[in-house]
Amino acid sequence: MNNESVDIYPVKGQCQCGQVTFSLKAAPKMVIACHCKECQKLSTSAFSITTIVEASNIEINGVLHDSSRVADSGSVNVGKFCPGCGNRIYQINPVAPEMIKFKAAGGLDNTSMIIPTMHVWTREKQTWFTIPEGVQQFEKQR
């Protein structure tokens, strides 16, 4: 994450169809690119971006539907998504609801602060993708 000016916050955004809106009130704690096969399926791309934010620093409006799965680590991930377009908005671990894994950062009106500072599950990454030099990387979940 770069040293973005606090002047950009709040940053507003929405899902693809506009039924769910959100406002990021402060800089994310962390921005992670996950290269696991599940995230490749979720994002229909080489990796997904997760911004870790404090629940108090994000406002989400609109009806959300739930899905849940147990990760390889044993952690439960509850995903919240828009019922209209299916965009995943965020995930939480029920034992740590104060931290949100915000998945819809690409829907923000300003994405300049969404720069991955860590890449995880790199053992499953697409061979053609090169992780920038100097960025933390882990073969599995950290």
TrEMBL record:
All copies of the CENP-V/GFA domain together span 11-122
Keyword Metal-binding included in the entry's annotation: yes
Q: Name one GO molecular function term.
A: metal ion binding
What InterPro entries does the entry give? CENP-V/GFA, Mss4-like_sf
Which PROSITE patterns has this protein been placed in?
CENP_V_GFA
For this UniProt record, the keywords arranged alphabetically read as follows: Lyase, Metal-binding, Zinc
Q: Which family does it belong to?
A: Belongs to the Gfa family.
PANTHER family linked? CENP-V_GFA DOMAIN-CONTAINING PROTEIN-RELATED (PTHR33337:SF40), GFA DOMAIN-CONTAINING PROTEIN (PTHR33337)
- According to UniProt, the name of this protein is CENP-V/GFA domain-containing protein
- Species in which this protein is naturally found: Vibrio algicola
